[in-house]
Every structure is written in structure tokens, then in C-alpha cells.
Design brief:
The chain is of the alpha+beta class. It contains four helices and twelve strands; from the N terminus they run E-H-H-H-E-E-E-E-E-E-E-E-E-H-E-E.
Length: 186
């Protein structure tokens, strides 16, 4: 249960998703560095967060799978951003990974635990630097470097988050840059 697979072609979007796409499109047309863009897109995502029902109408979670799957909801035609739904069944977790670009995330259903890590160059081991429990309505934005993390669902129901990435995930296959297998120290 530790891989992260982006699945399916982009889906048709509800009016709420269209508003989100339009707002992110307007924002990403302006120049800015990745950290600024991540924070600004997080603000947009907070104002235009779709509901869990909207996401479930757009994608089918299917039965619990062994692999974590994310579902592409939208890819901007020029490749400047993608919107992806991450659905985690209870007990599932992603691999420890970082990203190729900035990201903004909104929790919309259930719970997600996020563990942030730093790589200690002396020992070549990951060190857990922070763990947080994300609830529906919580939104954040981040950009590399410093984005090594793992997501898991410690709850008893399906968790859903919306992730906006500053790249065309359909073209590159995933938002993940590297998967980390080094030993973790606390």
C-alpha cells in the first residue's frame, strides 16, 4: 500500500471545479516564484474547495486497492498546472517522496496524517521533522526544496484531498520527483 499511481484521463468537471480551474489559471498567468505561487494557489483553493461529493461524482474510488491512487481531474492545456484528487482508504499511506514543482493541497473529507522529513547528508538518513493531522477545510501550499513527505490515512473512512501541481502530471506521469528509501530516524 505504498505506491502513488496517477490514474485515468482528465475527467469532465462540475461548475465548482470550473471555477477552481479558472481561478488557478488566472493566478498562474502572473509571474512569481514557486513558493509565492504555492501560497497564492492555496488561497484560491481555500475559496474554491470542491466537496467530497463533487470529487466522488468525477472519479470512482472503487473498492479499496493495494496501491494508493490519485485521480487526474484537470490538466491545463499549456501544461502549467494539474488538479489531482488523492483518495486514501483507512490504513493506506504513500511512499516517502518529494515533488517536481510547487503544490497546494486542500483536505476535503476524512483525515490525512502528513509526515515531513529532512535528509541528513552525514548519515544519508531521513529525519522526521514534523507530523500533523489534516482535517477537512485545511489548506496548505509548499514548494521544493523542503517538501519530502508521506501522507497516510489514520481514520476510519476514505480521505480525499485536492492537490494542485504546477506541472502537467498527465504528460510526466506523476508529480513525484524522487521516492526515498533511506532509513528514517526520529
Amino acid at each position: 500500500m505504498d505506491s502513488l499511481i496517477e490514474s485515468g484521463p482528465p475527467v469532465s468537471l462540475s461548475r465548482g471545479f470550473v471555477d477552481l480551474v479558472d481561478a488557478v489559471r488566472a493566478l498562474t498567468r502572473r509571474p512569481g516564484d514557486w513558493s509565492e505561487t504555492a501560497v497564492q494557489v492555496a488561497d484560491v483553493l481555500a475559496r474554491h474547495t470542491p466537496s467530497g461529493a463533487d470529487v466522488l461524482r468525477a472519479v470512482s474510488p472503487g473498492p479499496m486497492a493495494d496501491e494508493v491512487r490519485s485521480h487526474v481531474l484537470h490538466v491545463e492545456p499549456d501544461g502549467s498546472f494539474s488538479i489531482v484528487a488523492l483518495l486514501l482508504w483507512p490504513g493506506q499511506e504513500t511512499v516517502i517522496h518529494d515533488h517536481v514543482t510547487w503544490c497546494a493541497v486542500a483536505m476535503i473529507q476524512g483525515l490525512e496524517r502528513e509526515e515531513l522529513f529532512t535528509l541528513d547528508p552525514a548519515s544519508d538518513c531521513l529525519q522526521l521533522t514534523r507530523s500533523s493531522l489534516n482535517h477537512p477545510g485545511e489548506v496548505s501550499g509548499f514548494a521544493p526544496p523542503g517538501d519530502i513527505h508521506r501522507m497516510s490515512n489514520p481514520g476510519s473512512e476514505l480521505s480525499i484531498s485536492i492537490n494542485v501541481y504546477g506541472t502537467d502530471v498527465a504528460r510526466i506521469g506523476s508529480s513525484v520527483r524522487r521516492v526515498y528509501t533511506q532509513a528514517v530516524t526520529v
